[in-house]
Each structure stands twice: as structure tokens, then as C-alpha cells.
Amino acid sequence: MVLEFVGFLIDLRRGTSVGSRQVVLTFDVENDFNFPTFKGLEIGLPRILRLLERYKIPATFFVTGDVVEKYPKIIRNLSERYEVGCHGYHHESFQKMDPQKATLIKSAKKLIEETVKEEILGFRAPYLRVCPELFYTLAKIGFKYDSSLSWFNVLHWPIKESINEFRLMFPNVFFRFPLFNHLFKISCLLNRTPVFYFHPWEATDVRNLLITRPHYTWNIFSRPDRWLNSGAVFLSRLSNLIRYLLRHDFEFTTLKDIYFRSSKMKDRR
């Protein structure tokens, strides 16, 4: 079975693809997971940016509207060096659509564009929860691509050609689990355009945040995926992944750049 993925041909039987070896790092910028705080943006984001600057590589950041409201200068500065996309307004779920949610998406897109002074092309649904109506809404509002689906939660209804889809590799939490980070590296060799997603809060000490907030301490036992190997360990693994990809001649790019390249390829046909 061969399928076309944003201009690249992927043979699922052989695990090989035809096209340039590219990789995209994406980050969802939002409030701290399940907390009314923004330590990820205040502490984690600068750490991630230092890492990207060290290796001189681009990335795509999907930001929520409320983050832009609270930290407009940070997002404006971020857009000067990296692609910025939309991640909803209040990190709401889009598993079901209604007129109010459509308005939230439109308002978030407008706010981000007014802040960064450029058109926003991409969208990622919070929690990666979507429904067919969402994609019609995104196309109508003016988005050019979406990056909310993955190979692990693939839906069984087709995506209309009105919007391009960039699918994700694995759930980001697996990257912080023992041994799974090696699976991330191996999987890159089976797909010439892997798209990863992470969060700035993963670059902070989430366990310490849980301990200092008694109402959330129970998460240490019930949800280890929220804190396991966060902070310094996460940053070390991300750095190792970047070095691994560079050694294997992957070109780091953004979803926007791949969208424009794939559009040019389609125009030539």
C-alpha cells in the first residue's frame, strides 16, 4: 500500500519513502498540563529555545489564544525566528463542533495574526481531539493545514482536500518513557518526514510542581505520564534526538515550509 503524504510517497510495506529527508519539531504552547499556571512558557520555553538556537534549527509552535493574551511580547518574539500556529483559544476540545467553538477558533487566529503581524496557516487541536466538522471549519476560516491527527489515532473517515494534513508520529509522552526514546529514533528511519510534538511544560520539573500543590499531589501516583522524566531528562533526550537526526542527514524544517513545498509540487503536476 502506497500513500501520498504532503508530497512524499510512503510505501507502508517496505517502510521507505521517496523525497528529501526532513523532520519537523513542533511544540504546543499552552498552560501547564491541568494546572492554571504557565511555568512551561515562563521556564520551559526559554530552555527549549536555547536548545534550538544551539543547533540552529527551526521549529513550529502552536499557541493558544489565552497564552497570546497573557504573553504577547513572548509570542511576538517567538514568531520572528520560528513558525507560529494556532492551538485553539482556551485549550478546549474540538471532539464536537458548534458555532461557539468555530467562533473561538476564528478569534484565536485573528488575535495571533494581529500579534505576530503575519498570516497563520496551521492549526492543531488541543488533546488531538477532532471531529469531521472541524476540518470543514478550519478550511472555511482560512487555515491551510492541520496537524491534529496521528498514525496512532487515525480516524476512519477521509479528510477533504480543502485542507492539508500533517500527521504525528507517536504520543509525546512516550518520548519520556524508558526505552521509548530509542523507538522514536528508529521510527525516523522508516519515514522521511517525521513530525514530532512536545510541550514547553515537559522541559520543567513537573514533579516538583505537583509536590508543592497539595490538591494535585495525587497525580504523582495516578498520572506518572505528567511528570516522568520531565525537566532536565527531557531536555537531554531532546538534545540526543536532534543530534541523532543531524547525524543521519535529516533537514529540520517547519510545517509551513513543507506546506509551501508540497503546494509547488502539486502545481507542477
What does this structure look like?
This protein is of the alpha/beta class and 269 residues long. The chain has a single domain (20-262), classed as Glycoside hydrolase/deacetylase (TIM Barrel, Alpha-Beta Barrel). Helices cover 40% and strands 15% of the residues. The protein has ten helices and eleven strands. The strands form three sheets. Strands 4, 5, 6, 10 and 11 form a five-stranded parallel beta sheet that branches. A three-stranded antiparallel beta sheet has the order 1-2-3, with no helix packed on it. It is globular, with a radius of gyration of 18 Å.
Q: Give the quaternary arrangement of the chains.
A: single chain
Average pLDDT figure: 82
Question: How much helix, percentage-wise, in residues?
Answer: 40-55%
The CATH superfamily title: Glycoside hydrolase/deacetylase
Which percent range describes the beta-strand content?
A: 5-15%
Low-confidence region ranges: 1-18
CATH topology: TIM Barrel
Counting structural domains, the number is: 1
Please identify the structural class as seen in this structure: alpha/beta
